[in-house]
Design goal:
By secondary structure, the protein is an alpha+beta fold. It folds into three domains: about 40 residues; about 190 residues, no CATH class; about 50 residues. Helix content is about 60%, strand content about 5%. It is built from ten helices and six strands; from the N terminus they run H-H-E-E-H-E-E-H-H-E-E-H-H-H-H-H. The strands form two sheets. Strands 2-1-6-5 form a four-stranded mixed β-sheet. A two-stranded antiparallel sheet has the order 3-4. A hairpin with a 4-residue loop joins strand 1 and strand 2. Helix 4 packs across helix 5, helix 4 packs across helix 8 and helix 6 packs across helix 8.
């Protein structure tokens, strides 16, 4: 192999840079387009089976704007993106709603032969309730059961109490979340903020149409509803690690070969006296 300067000429380095940029930005544009096309829908309404609407599209969008004005990604996070001064709100809502709905299912009077079978059956009902996609693409409406509406209402009360700061028991939690002292919302703004948190949790827990993973690829982790990493995530993680190691080995090999060839091509009249001197000093 030629030495480094002969092999990696300026022209070749420019070609490598341009090709790398073209491939990188092509991949970014393609994947960005796919993400945009497959983004979770914001529904026109979230309604109970009896037709009562609990959240509108305007509620969800207003809630997002409210969340941004009070710190956004600097005060908690959505889908794992942002600061961790406070919880990941999509994960927090998802867990609280799942626990609440599970309690409602337990109190429904459904029992099997033994406690273990009953407990597992309750979890299956919970998972089916939360992961089934009831979004109607034609009407833009998400339809939920009466039980889930009760669970949402209970979860919403927690957030209203947290953000309106109208109960003493929430003061310590606000301190733990590093809430600014003056960051207090009125009840209507807190309700709309809850609508946005619900939507983010809905997208994280609802399967994509004709698929077995959620809109966020089963993120965040929530064992109660089976939100665990799909095999494809683990597979691509392993592949990316091996590709990274392969590139590092290749680069190290090129450097090692260049160093070896460089030593071999040096003038022996300069190298030999240095070796002799090193031997004598030892």
């Amino acid at each position: 192999m030629k030495n480094y300067s002969d092999f990696f000429t300026i022209k070749r380095l420019w070609i490598a840079l341009i090709v790398s940029l073209i491939l990188s930005f092509s991949a970014l544009l393609y994947l960005g387009g796919q993400i945009y096309q497959q983004a979770p829908p914001i529904p026109n309404a979230v309604q109970i089976v009896n037709g009562n609407v609990i959240y509108s599209k305007q509620d969800i969008e207003d809630g997002q704007n409210i969340w941004q004005t009070i710190g956004g990604m600097q005060q908690g996070s959505i889908w794992g993106h942002g600061s961790y001064l406070a919880p990941d709100w999509s994960a927090d809502w998802l867990h609280r709603e799942a626990l609440s709905l599970l309690d409602i299912i337990k109190s429904s009077g459904f029992y099997l032969n033994n406690k273990y079978q009953t407990r597992e059956a309750h979890k299956i009902i919970l998972k089916d309730e939360m992961r089934t996609n009831t979004y109607n693409a034609t009407t833009g409406v998400i339809t939920i059961s009466q039980n889930r509406a009760l669970a949402i209402a209970e979860t919403q009360r927690h957030y209203i109490d947290l953000y309106t700061s109208n109960k003493q028991e929430y003061q310590q939690l606000r301190e733990d979340y590093a809430f600014p002292i003056k960051m207090i919302l009125d009840k209507e703004k807190a309700r709309k903020l809850s609508a946005f948190f619900f939507w983010s949790a809905w997208a994280a827990s609802t399967n994509r149409p004709e698929d077995e993973v959620t809109y966020t690829s089963n993120w965040p982790h929530e064992p109660l509803i089976g939100n665990t990493p799909p095999p494809s995530v683990l597979l691509w993680s392993i592949i990316s690690i091996f590709l990274l190691l392969a590139v590092l080995v290749l680069l190290f090999g090129i450097m090692l070969l260049n160093l070896t060839n460089g030593v071999k091509t040096q003038n022996l009249s300069r190298v030999l006296p240095q070796l002799i001197l090193l031997k004598i000093t030892k």
